[in-house]
Design a protein that fits this description.
alpha/beta; disordered C terminus; eight-stranded mixed sheet; 11 strands; 3 domains; Rossmann fold
Length: 375
């Protein structure tokens, strides 16, 4: 792909340069107005995928539902990008999409919304909800003709509370970056399971043999609270744990923090967890990371068992747009919300109202009666 930047006194003049230099196949990646030597100029970044075959302009008018292709002089339905080998195209295509969203953003007709809807979308933008999620919410509102934003948000931000009713007969594995609170999450859920099912065997599992602190913490609280402590370092040990979950045991696994995209899928293969039933993985995150970091964590920890998002350290954040961004990017439901250091009261199963109170009112779970947090 050949990428060049052009400048001119007007947009029409710059597009003429692009068309003359790169031809009608040029893709506009971004544009901005700059000042240079006291003169206002238009700057356009354009690219040409030299591996793609020429497009044929049939001369036909596009149908109403045809999406703009952002190629000069043509409009057609979008096709999958042609991506050369040997490049990290997942990241590069994400950058291209961000440029396209920047071009689409001014085209959003907020005048088509009611004042209440417009204020809600503007608020979500201030909360850090990204352009892709805002565009999805906007289109959902327009397509459905609803009066409020919550139904459109509910179609993007799904909730599946982390309870035995919603996840019967499952062993739960918690994945994510170091320092986000995976070990604390395991203990919180194990202690809640002990209170809820006093006769059941509750097992906390250390699957990270190289981290002594987490092992000591799990073992210590297991001894104090009547939990069963176990370690799993091979497929046979994981097999016994999954068999126990099928018999009604509550099993919570603390996994190692891995590096490299696709690392968790590889680790699951080494542990014999590929195509094993009865296991749910939950990505533990805190709303304290930049969007690029959370996207990276999702790629690192993506595996066939990944089933939900657990949000921790909510009391340390000042905005909560990342909850919407990750739900939209991953299509995973939110299963649990956690705040504060307390092990016995710091986490609650997710519910729709709890998420909306957090997003719109900055109310943490526990700051309002439990009855108000119902789905």
């Amino acid at each position: 792909m050949r990428v060049k930047t052009y400048r001119g006194t007007s947009m029409a003049a710059v597009l003429a340069q692009v068309r003359q230099d790169l031809g009608p196949e040029a893709v506009i990646l971004g544009n901005q107005t700059i000042r240079e030597d006291g003169e206002t100029l238009c700057e356009v970044m354009a690219a040409l995928d030299e591996t793609a075959p020429p497009l044929q302009d049939t001369g036909k008018e596009p149908v109403d539902n045809a999406a703009p292709d952002y190629r000069l002089g043509i409009r057609r339905k979008p096709a999958a990008p042609r991506l050369p080998q040997g490049m990290d195209w997942s990241r590069e295509w994400g950058e291209i999409k961000s440029h396209l969203l920047a071009l689409l953003r001014p085209r959003l007709d907020f005048g088509a919304l009611s004042p209440r809807q417009r204020l809600a979308l503007e608020y979500l933008e201030r909360e850090g909800v990204d352009d892709a999620a805002v565009l999805a919410i906007y289109r959902s509102i327009i397509d459905s003709g609803e009066d409020t934003v919550i139904p459109a948000l509910s179609r993007i931000v799904h909730v599946k509370p982390l309870t035995t009713d919603a996840w019967p007969g499952m062993a739960h594995m918690f994945v994510g970056p170091s320092g986000v609170g995976k070990t604390t999450t395991v203990l919180r859920l194990a202690l809640a399971a002990r209170r809820r099912m006093p006769e059941a065997r509750v097992v906390v599992v250390n699957a990270d043999a190289g981290r002594g602190k987490g092992r000591l913490m799990l073992r210590h609280y297991a001894e104090l609270s009547g939990l069963t402590y176990a370690e799993a370092e091979n497929p046979e040990e994981f097999g016994r744990l999954l068999d126990g979950a099928k018999r009604g045991e509550a099993v919570f696994v603390d996994t190692p923090s891995l590096r490299g995209e696709g690392a968790m899928a590889g680790w699951c293969g080494e542990m014999g967890l590929t195509r094993r039933e009865g296991l749910a993985a939950h990505l533990v995150l805190a709303p304290l990371y930049a969007p690029a970091q959370t996207s990276h964590f999702l790629r690192v920890n993506h595996c066939e068992h990944l089933a939900s998002l657990v949000w921790t350290k909510l009391d340390e954040a000042c905005i909560y747009g990342s909850l919407v961004n990750m739900a939209h990017a991953s299509s995973l439901p939110i299963s649990a919300l956690a705040a504060g250091p307390e092990l016995t009261q710091g986490m609650v199963p997710a519910s729709g109202k709890a998420v909306w109170k957090l997003l719109f009112k900055h109310q943490l779970p526990g700051e309002y009666p439990d009855a108000e947090a119902g789905a």
